[in-house]
Each structure stands twice: as C-alpha cells, then as structure tokens.
Amino acid sequence: MKLNQMERYHILLRSYGPQHWWPAESTFEMLIGAILTQNTSWKNVDLALKRLKPGLTPEKIERMSPETLADCIRPSGFYRLKAERIRSFLAWYRDYHYDPSRVSAVDASSLRNELLDVKGIGRETADAMLVYAFKKPFFIADAYARRFFTRLGDDVPKNYDDFRKQVEAGLPDDLAVYQEYHALIVAHGKMHCRAAARCDGCPFFSKCEARIEKDYQRRHGGFK
C-alpha cells in the first residue's frame, strides 16, 4: 500500500529532522533568493547574496544601476536576466511599500495570480515566495518532488498546477507542514533521491517502487 502524504512527511521528518527553512536573514533576502535560485544551486545563490550585502534592502537594490546589480549577482548565473527579473519584482513590490505584511493581507489565490503576472516569476518561484515570505500554504511542485513521488509509484501529472493540487489534497491546511515538507523533500533529493538514486540507507527503501522494480529486473532479467 502506498504511503499517504502525511506518512511520507513524518518519515522524512524523523529521518532528516527540522530543516529551518528558508535560510535568510530577512524576508527581502528570502524573496531575492527565490529569484536567484532559478536554474542554479543554492551555493551559487549564497555567493550572489553575499555580494549584495551588507544592508540588503529594496531601496538599496533600487538605487543600483542595472549593470551594477547584474555584476553583483553574477555567481548565480543568467545574471543579466535575473537582474531584470529582480527589478520587475521590485516594481510590483513597491506598490505594497515593500511591506510583506501588506502583501500577506491579500488572499492567497489573488496574490499568487499577481506574482505570476510579474515578468520572470514562474509558478515554482511564486509558490516559494508565497510559502516562505508571505505565509500562504502552497505546495512547491519542483523537480525534487516530481522525482520522489514518481519513484514511490504515484501517477504524477505533467502539469505543474495539477501536480501541486494533487499533493495539497493530501495535506492539512497548516503552513508549517508546507514549509517543512518542501525543505525535507529537497534534503531527501540531495541525499538519496538524486537523478542517479542512492538507495543504500534510504528511509523509503522498502516503499520505493522504482527501486523494487529495478531489483526485480536485475534478479529476473525482465519486468514484473
């Protein structure tokens, strides 16, 4: 029998412990980090954020020329494109006086649509901002989650929002669970559920249909 979402959550939590996400000194740093992390590793994001500090504020970024901003975030890759996206996001955020509490006062669905209208803010980036900065419960249906659930034997929809809603249907309306679940899935994806899986010691070893099928093929020379 397949594990439900909360069973998976508790196995991950027991295995990896609380992840204390998102790693940032301020809400604004969190928001900028969500843009910088597009198509790169967190190590590169961290390097870029350090070049923007100390005193990382919206006003500081607004005062920078596009060239200076791009140069500062160079370690994150696609730095000119990301600089444009940061500036587009700031133009939207300015309407809320750079105040996350004002943003959070908007209902979740409307706020998500607003973010998706900002140039360069896709669904995964928007959901990361919503969950960690603006305290709205959305499941971040990223590549780590897709690979993990597929290997467990789920019929994972190709469409991002269909996948997100499928997972959300099995989760309580609890922001802390959404925040922790995403962080735990990332930790699991880095430790065991990589593109080339590291199955030894995996907490889902006995439940992973992909691993079970692979073992069967190795022993019997064909599919079950």
From TrEMBL:
ATP-binding listed as a keyword: no
GO MF, one example: 4 iron, 4 sulfur cluster binding
Keyword Metal-binding assigned: yes
Pfam families xref list: HhH-GPD
InterPro entries: DNA_glycosylase, HhH-GPD_domain, HhH_base_excis_C
Keyword terms, alphabetized: 4Fe-4S, Endonuclease, Hydrolase, Iron, Iron-sulfur, Metal-binding, Nuclease
Gene Ontology BP terms: base-excision repair
Residues covered by the HhH-GPD domain: 36-191
Protein name: Endonuclease III domain-containing protein
Native organism: Sporolactobacillus sp. Y61
